[in-house]
Structure formats: structure tokens, C-alpha cells
Amino acid sequence: MEALVRAQEAAAPDVGRGRLAEYIPSLAAVDPRQFGMAIASCDGQVHAIGDADVRFSVQSISKVFTLALVIAAEGELIWERVSREPSGNPFNSLLQLDQEAGRPRNPFINAGALVVTDRLHSLTGDACGALRDLMRSESGRTDVGIDREVARSELAAGHRTSALAHLLASYGNLECPVEQVISQYAGQCALSMSCRELALAGLFLASDGVLSDSTRLLTARQTKRVNAVMLTCGTYDSAGEFAYRVGLPAKSGVGGGILAVIPDRGVACVWSPALGSSGSSAAGLAALDAFTTYSDWTVF
Ligand code: GLN
Questions:
Q1: Parallel, antiparallel, or unpaired for β 191-193 and 145-146?
Q2: Is 57's C-beta closer than 6 angstroms to any atom of ligand 1?
Q3: pLDDT of 237 strictly over 90
Q4: Residues 168-219: tens digit of each pLDDT
Q5: Which end of the chain is more exposed for a tag (fewer CB within 10 A), N or C?
Q6: Is the pLDDT of residue 277 over 90?
Q7: Which of 110, 159, 192 to mutate to test the pocket of ligand 1 (most atoms within 8 A of CB)?
Q8: Banded model confidence at residue 1, pLDDT cuts 50, 70, 90
Q9: What is the DSSP letter of 218?
Q10: 91 close to ligand 1 (CB < 6 Angstrom)
Q11: Which residues are catalytic?
Q12: 3-state class of 252 per DSSP?
């Protein structure tokens, strides 16, 4: 696919440029000079380039899938506990959560994702397991799983996450024991998947909520709403810049992956570990910018 080649070329100057997520020691050990990208189209075809089959830590990309699972289970009740406005603040900000009395701005910053995971854990008894099963069935790979070393590394160094979880609990916005929520959250972030697997796993977001076996996870209306929240909140305090340059609903993670949805067309997933200032892959942003510029896979 010509647009993938152009995307890789456009990203090349940024590959390896930026910082790794040093606050999670295991992620700081990843080779930053890697780059991969995969496009899965709604008809099931996949095009890939570079390191598209290398598994990486999905980190916050997991938050889209946990949100989808919670909405699938009980509709839109989660919005009673989490707002859906861009935060304009770093993804791990404590100040905003305290100022807003324990109600996270959106489900994609860490505070909001903790509430979603808390709810998923209440609903299923095993939030990580529910997420892993969805990822396995949608990617078609039964060996998709959690990298226990990354989870352990995040738990050992995750003081801000613990602080956020305790702050949420102090405002009565967690149902499960705090330590359980933190450990489920670290586990979901430590899921290890490739660009190809993630693009396939996200296809229901481009297909009105319909899964690979033709059953439905979300209604078309719910899918539209999840994509809308990705567009406004999926890349944290650079969501405006991301929308300006790429113009797609997307979710990034500090492992260097970005998942972007082109409704009714397909899903793009790009990975390159070095991060720009707000915690999204610098080369990934450049690649998606070029991809939507040189292809008709756009919404605008
Ligand atoms: N696990 C990471 C954290 O909690 C996820 C952050 C991210 O990918 N933006 O800090």
C-alpha cells in the first residue's frame, strides 16, 4: 500500500527521537529505533510495514477496549462516574482530579481509566481477563497476553497511579479495593500486542460495533460515541494538535503505540517507542499525519 510507504518515509526522521516512558523501568529498556504500522480494513485485509509484527506494551490503548467492554455490559452508566471532556492536562494529573472532587475528566486519562477498570472488575470479577479474551478473539491470536514483567515494573514504580486510585477512593469513586484496581490497571496496560494484532482487535470500532464473528459488542450509536471521545480525549493534552494533524479518533499509549479509527473503512495502528512531550509516539504522529494526507482514509 503506497500510503503506508509514504507514512514510513515521513516518520523516519522522528524514529528514535524523543524519550521513552522512563517512569516504567521495563519500557525504558525498549530499543527506540523501531517502527511498525498496520492497516486493517473492514473487509478483513491487513497491510503492514516495518516492525508491524513486533509486540509492544499497549499501555493506554487498552483504555478504549475496557471502556467498550463496560458500555457493552451495562450501557452508558459509566458517565455517572466519569466525564467526557478533554482534560487539557497531563494524563496522570492529580490536581484536576482533586479540584473536580474525584470525578475524572474523561475515561482515557489515568484517573478515568481506573474508574472504568474498577467497574469492569466489578462486572466480570476479572477485568484483565475480560480484556485479554476480547483481544485474543479479535486478533485471532490465542497467545496474546500480559507481559508480567512490565506489569510488575509499573506496579513497583507506579506512585502516581496509586495516588490517583487512593484519591478516587477518598471521594467514593471506586467500588473494588484500591490495591485490586491498581493491579488490574497495571495488568491491562501491560498487555503485549503487535500493530497487526491491535489493528484487527480495534476493527469493531470502524464497523459500527460488530465483532469478527459477526456478533455485536456495541450498538452503532455507542460505537460512534466511543470514537467521539477518542477524537477529543484520546491523545491527552495534545488532542487538539493530533486532530489538526491527523484528524482521526485515536488512542495513544506510552509504549509508543497509536490506534486510529477510520469509520467504515478500517483501523490503523502505528508503533515507534520514542515519545513526544505529551506522551504519544512522535514518529507515530508523523506517520498518521502523512497517512491521512496521502490516502483517502480520512474523516475530514
Ligand atoms: N500505564 C501507564 C500509566 O499509568 C499508561 C499511561 C499511558 O499510556 N499514557 O502511566
A1: antiparallel
A2: no
A3: no
A4: 999 999 999 999 999 999 999 999 999 999 999 999 999 999 999 999 999 9
A5: C
A6: no
A7: 110
A8: confident
A9: S
A10: yes
A11: 60, 63, 185, 236, 254
A12: strand
**Local confidence band at 27 (pLDDT 50, 70, 90 cut-offs):** very high
Q: Which amino acid is at 88?
A: G
Is 92 touching ligand 1 by the criterion CB < 6 Å? yes
Coil, helix or strand at residue 137: helix
Question: Which H or E element spans position 290?
Answer: helix 282-294
Contact 16, 33 (CB under 8 A): yes
C-alpha pair distances (Å), 94 with each of 29, 109, 266, 290, 298: 27, 11, 35, 35, 35
Phi, psi of 66 (to 5 degrees): -65, -40
- Distance between CA atoms of residues 75 and 69, nearest Å: 10
Strand partners of residue 193: 56
E-strand stretches of the chain: 36-41, 46-50, 56-57, 145-146, 191-193, 250-252, 257-262, 266-271
Mean predicted lDDT score pLDDT of the chain: 96
Pairs from 149-153 (Cβ < 8 Å, separation ≥ 24)? 149/26, 150/24, 150/26, 150/27, 150/57, 150/189, 150/190, 150/192, 151/183, 151/186, 151/187, 151/189, 151/190, 153/24, 153/25, 153/26, 153/27
Q: Grid coordinates standing for 217?
A: 459488542
How many whole angstroms from 220 Cα to the centroid of ligand 1?
Answer: 28
DSSP 3-state assignment of 261?
Answer: strand
pLDDT at 300: 87
Which cell numbers in the block locate residue 23?
Answer: 517512569
